[in-house]
## 1
Amino acid sequence: MHVMPRGDDENLMLVQSQSQVDRLNKDFYSQFPYPWPPQTFDFITDQDLPRQLLNQNVGDWTHARVPPKPRIWIAGCGTNQAIYLALRHPDAHIVATDLSPVAIEICRRNAAQLGLGHLQLRNETLNEAPYRDEFDVVICTGVIHHNAQPVHALERLSAALAPSGLLELMVYNRFHRSVHSVFQKALRLLAGTSASDDRREELRVARRLAEVFPVRNRIRELLHAFRGAPESAFADGLIQPVEYSYTVESLAQMADQCGLELLCPVPNEWDVMAQPSDWHLVFGDDELQHRYDALPDVMRWQVSNLLLLERSPQLWFYLHKADSSYPRQSSAEMNALFLDTVFEPVKSTRGHYRRQPDGSYRRAARMTAFPASAPDADLQDVYRAVDGRSPMRAVLERLGRSMDFGDVLRYRTRLATMAFPFLRAKPSGKTSG
């Protein structure tokens, strides 16, 4: 049997072959279906708004790159990611795959109940995916780092992209996972499962450790964070059998091997909730700031990743093919187009399907406002000044606002993305005046 490479800085003790790892993951996520059932599934009544905001995430203010009725593949959908996406994009053609038949069955049952006829669910492994040049959007979050050969999995994702397609990819940040990997190795030695498949015994021992571990250190902090967590969350976070992790540098190198390039970070709800430091550093020193802001995007993100360590955001990025029909825009170019664009405030509503005691979901009668919150306090004057007629540059000039690189980056990402959905580009996209 070919033995896969292992490393002390990652959880690779059980890696021997891709087929063996597929079996481990299939068994693991059949025992511990992930994620756990949510209390609500939400949808936005302005049905095209999520597509428009997705385009804005990657700096497309014309809303053209991801077309109406896009073709979307969710690779490794788990129990509910496909449901969220199908409710968000009712006009899309969506294929969702997972190697766990249990996860697919849970997803299929909920999809049928919610009437999501545009969602196709398939029980298949990413590592044997047959898709070629097919999808406008491919979404793969928290999946390839659980494979024996993440490069092979990423090659499959790359092959599935249409020439102008976008890949949304999340892999573990090396600096977030060092304590998890150390704990997982120690757990397998303590539980006597280093060469076995007894995940239930690992779970039992890990739960006991979470209750009684005596040393006040980072392991104890990790265990306390999972005390009382749903079983699937506890298992995925602490006893997953195979795990790679990355830095910005190693992720960019892997992407290059697969004919891909990083476009920009994905503004995502997990980073919003965790409130880590932003990808853009503010030094309070003109020379350092100039040096940092002048770096190419990937190198600048790399510096942030290295200096922030465990406080850096998740490695959650948009990528596309290096020969994409859409040339890559730098962050500075995205900023420039943002300044030339006319915006209007987003005003919509959101509906909810709420989980019932029997596990089914029922649509709630009450709608809520979308967006549900207000912009950050220091950005509310910009938000209030948007009038649907003036380009953003004119709005900022009237307010006497800075248009330095980092400031415009903050306006753009914190006001006009899916994670901060306050402004939408007007249909004309840009103004001549």
## 2
Amino acid sequence: MKQTIFSEERSFQSGDEGETIVNVRTFLDRLGYMSLAQMAAATDRAAFDADLEQAVIKYQRFHGLEPTGIVDEQTRRVMETPRCGVADLLMGQEPHTPGLAEYVLSGGKWPLYNITYKFVNGTADLAGDTERNIVRQAFDVWAAVTDLEFTEVTGSSDADILLSWVTGDHGDGSPFDGPGHVLAHAFFPPPINPHPGIAGDTHFDDAETWSDTGTGGTIDLLSVAIHELGHALGLRHTSDSNAIMYPTYRGPNHTLGSDDIAGIRKIYPPVPWWRRLLRWIWKLFGR
């Protein structure tokens, strides 16, 4: 059953109360729009108070909506749009000034330019190895604009990034919510991750219906995989709606924006020519 925040098609504003207000507050808490102090001060989570109003304004600013603090029809529609489960902001952080959006770095970075990955499992939604080939294409998208190299490993070998399709509470502290809303999430590279051993891991919600087209109510896997790998490489969400690292899913998009490219190159600057030469020599003669 598809998850929804709103049970009523109306606006919500300061002074309102009810279960929908709890849903809105939980949604904004999880995405970083309220500080820890504001969350602790919410003695009545069903009440639309001043702190929640400020969180709504932040959300509206981040998503290019009119910052009224009222959860109107347009704001409801964006909140209900399927999206990535990674928070938009660090708790209580202010979003970028509208019109001045730029890439946002997590602070995490892989120490080497050769990053390994491994598939833990796949999804029954796609035949054969289709989902694995799609994710390999997603790695290629990031490799095309950087000097990063991605190597797939199998069996008992360790890997930097583990990829899996899971449902519900899958043991990482960020349970999936069933069909709708959160499609996937990924953890930042070291040292930015919630607990050791999970850096870079990328999880797709297998309660969604994945496809290679994104048609007929399905979710286009390549679009989501490119986005999530951006997190696994060190990028946070941006408020630039033209970027692949924008948090909401709006149908198939397989192209990095200028914001994405600038961000990933900030984390992983181009390798000097002499290092490329040494790497090539090592590949040719060192194995």
